[in-house]
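User: Predict the complex.
Assistant: Input components as received:
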Amino acid sequence: MSKTPGLPDRATTRPRKIRLRIAARTLTAAVVLFCVGLAHAATIPLRKLDWSYMPPDALAATNAGSDQTLTSFDLPLHWSTVEGSPLHAVALRMHFRLESVPDQSWALLLSQSSEGGRFSVNGHFIGAIAAESEVRHVIWRRPQLLSIDAPLLVEGDNELEVQTTYGPGAHVLAGVEVGPLSELWSRYALRFTLDYVSTWIGATVALLTALVFGALWLQRGESISLLLAVAGLCWLLYCATWLVEVMPVAFRPPVRLGGMAAMAAFDATLAITLLRLSSLARRREEWVIGLFAALGPALSLASSMQADPYLQVSWVPALLLIVAIATGVGLYRRTRGLLAPHPLVLVVAVALVLAGLIDLGPVFGLDLLGGVPATNFAAPVMLAALATPLVDGFIKMMREAEAARAELETRVREREQLLKRNFERLRESERVKVEVQERQRIMQDMHDGLGSQLMSSLMLVERGAVSNEQFAQILRESIDDMRLAIDALSAEHADLAAALGNLRFRMEPRLRAAGMELTWDARQLPEEIGLHPDVVLPILRIVQEALTNALKHSRAKAVRVTLAVEGTGDAQCLDIRVADNGRGITEERAGGRGLLNMRNRAQKIGAQLKIATAPNVGTTVHLRTRIGPVSPTTKPGQTVLNTQAIIERARQQ
Amino acid sequence: MSADQISIIIVEDEPEFRRRFAQIIDSEPTMRLVGVAANKREAQALIDREDFDVMLIDLGLPDGTGIDLIRSVSQRKPDVDIMVVTVFGDEQHVVSSIEAGATGYILKDSTPADVISCIRLLRAGGSPVSPVVARSVLRAIRSRMGGSTTGSTTTPARSPSAENNPLSARETEILQLLAKGMSFNEIGEILGISPHTVTAHIKKIYRKLAVHSRGEAVYEASQMGLLKT
């Protein structure tokens, strides 16, 4: 992996463009839906309230004193109380005019009210929502809806009274409307989704981000994954503190501090992530950002939350500014074509900064979205946007790995083919070599055997020294010799026994015709004898010569051929005896050509040849040759190359 | 011309040998020469026209190999004995003829007595065989069974598996003895059967080899898509 994941990459811009388009459409649809939700024709927004303090225990009484000082405020109303101040009880009165008494149920919608209280219309109680008490801290994030029975309403001026208590901290009352229940109900549902459910969704996204990238970081140790996991965790924590609306009073400081710290950590992590994605990962700046983020919670803690209102207008905007600067740096680098965060990340970062500004608005008296927490939308989207390039990077990496593996496989296959080809070539050349040897052997054989025999016969015939009978005899011998050669060639598959058998079949009728009984004892012979044709032919020739000698010269009555294999393993010997009971070899024949040929042939193949002869007892030709196991080198044509094994070994290297 | 005369046709392109074989048969009263052919075309006409018991055929004909003729005759006229006339009786010629359906072979330079006795043996239900041919038949059958032929030296005689080996144990034994150079008489003595039975076994082996190779050829042809199924 040569590239950091999350960097833009041209090869995958197409699917990303589609993704952007989908995101844009979703956003448009949401905005349209939101605007539809805001459009309210028949409802009456309440814009003014009269504020009067009550004795702290007045809440218990149903009828509050009306002699308190009235102060008028415009809605939306944001106010805060210093830490440590006691509970305040107030009666808030709002007025609305009706042209006529409606004939259907009406309702009161509190889009954004951090406080609960008792609610009455025209002095009639319509409902209560849990409010701050000595033991209970309440900070409502969800909208509230109370129904108003139509008969309670009167033509002309109507009064809505809220009796509530509030403790230290920031408070808000905004988006108070009355109207037909059916209409407000759907508005209430929308607000509930926007304010409350969306934060749950955001928390889920943050949780998933934290889990996925935390796991990734544990596996791979990449800093970006860690930052994303931390950001996810921070946002999850923030959502947790935000979603807890009712708690024991003692829990208020830690929950508030936790929320503050979580938000600050989220912003800081985000800023650092953006800078790192711009490859501006400088330790010092990161420390500064981190310390600044820690400053707010630290001051809040040190001042027992006294400093919170000041932090709200200084430190919180400054934190947002840091994120904005990091985003700006990214945008600048992107326009300059430098290494920068992915465009999607930058777009969402800008949106996040804007959302932060919107959420800060009420502090400076500017309420753009009617109190809908914009950051709660933008932050999870930011997390998702940051995750997208990372995921893309991983996908790309996986594709690259797959491609690399495929290429490797192709190369291995090519190498394999090459090896195979080489071995085939080797085999081929081996085969050619064997063929050449074979051809040379046959040529040599024709030269020595048939050729010279025909040649000398031709001389005799030309001299006119042969009778027809002799001529036929000469030709018959020539053919016999050729048959021997052919049998020897056929004996390629280690078939000495069969070749000798063929010799027997040819010779037997002739011996019988000459009045000789041939006994052929091959019982001691194994089924197959491994001998090279180079050796088979001389053996055949020697046996034929011995039989021919017996036929021509011995005047024997019986000839016995005994074939046997003796010994085992390397010491295995082929033992051939051709014995006749004739007159023996006479003096004048002892040095004859036939016997000399037999000896020469035996010598050539390294065999022992013994000829025992006694007058009128007979002659025994005894041939003995080692046959031992055939090694591959002495058996051409059977190259034992295990190609597969060699390829396997090459593959492993 | 008596009914028990053996009727013979000769397919041989060399005039000298044709004449020689014709002479041998003519001079034998128990045999009758029905016709001779010098090439495949003539032979085909002769085969279509005449009824005969034995066909002597040379493989190397001027207009093609005699193997096709052997195959068609052995399929169309299963009662006919086909005898291949060969110069050397070498395994390649003989085994492919046997696979095509021939049940005997004879060397070209055989004596008249040999020729006559070979034909008689064939008609009597036997087949002559030389050791090298016996060995080749064994090898051909083993290679059918999936055993390697070249490796037979290093892996001695695989035990024939029953489902692939068309030969009975007795037939295999006879072939093995023949391959060692034993004569029919000797084999008969060893196995306690008559020499005639030995040759009858050989003829059966030849038939099996032919049928087996035919089945194999059909299988291979259908594998190659040559036959419509």
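Residues 142 and 196 of chain A are 6 Å apart (CA to CA).
Let me know if you want any component modeled separately.
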